[in-house]
Write a structure and sequence with these properties.
Blueprint: H1 9-19, E1 28-34, H2 42-45, E2 51-61, E3 64-70, H3 75-92
Antiparallel strand pairs: 1-2, 2-3
């Protein structure tokens, strides 16, 4: 029977960290400022006068890009969830 070896501390700590449940989300959070293309509107000439900001969560599901518009009030929570999801995937890899 093979000798049982102790689990390295770094591996044990990582397993503990990954097992803690926390809200996370796949994808990215994007911010857009749009031009409406109406003649003589300021947004047509000046980038600083564009409409927005508009927020959306973008992710790939079964090889296809999906996006969902989100309200400005949800942005900070979604940003934390997206960052937590990215960190989780980096640690697992």
């Amino acid at each position: 029977m093979p000798e049982r070896k102790e689990i390295p501390t770094a591996v044990r700590d990582l397993a503990q960290l990954l097992s803690e449940a926390q809200p996370m989300r796949r994808g990215t959070l994007s911010v857009q400022h749009l031009r409406c293309n109406k003649p003589r509107w300021p947004c047509a000439d000046r980038p600083s006068a564009r409409h927005g900001p508009y927020y959306r969560v973008v992710r790939v599901v079964k090889g296809r890009t999906q996006s969902r518009h989100v309200s400005a009030g949800c942005v900070e929570e979604l940003r934390r969830q997206v960052e937590a999801g990215q960190q989780f995937r980096q640690r697992v890899e």
